[in-house]
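Pilot study result, target chain (175 residues):
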Amino acid sequence: MGGASEDSEHAAPAGHGFFAWVRVVVFVLAGVAGLGIATMMVITCLDVVLRVFGRPLTGALDIVKVAGAVTIAGALPYTTAVKGHVAIEYFFQKLSRRGRVVVDTTARLLGMTLFGLLSWESVQYGLSLQRSGQVTATLKLPLFWVPYLVAFSCVAVAAVILYNLLHPGKAMIKP
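Predicted structure:
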């Protein structure tokens, strides 16, 4: 059922096991990113309004910083899945078809390696934050979970890149 010749109307059909799960993870992380943006907007607006009355919101900077990291981590897999990153098409199109395949494959393999290493390092950093008990400056919120989220996001990005490597020319998700 399905395969390389399947109709490309849908970016990643639901019946493709692993990549169907990756797609779900990408959408969940995009939702988390959306919540992060909403949190930053609400906290910033609330802080500005409360400052007018001489009562700034305690810990607003802590919350906005954490929400910013969550937003970036959550948005990265979706941006990769819809192929929303900047590409240097001018030089790429000047290559022969074989040259484009080699460059594209090499770039994707390097990308998967990079995000695998970023994931590993993020876990290591999260463990060190957890061991040291690192918290935010004002609200004393624990921070160890943020690098874990970044690590999970990096694994999702690597899986999306794998999809792109195995399905050239097809976006996993259509924007």
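One observation from the pilot: The chain has one domain: 17-166. A full batch analysis is planned for the follow-on phase.
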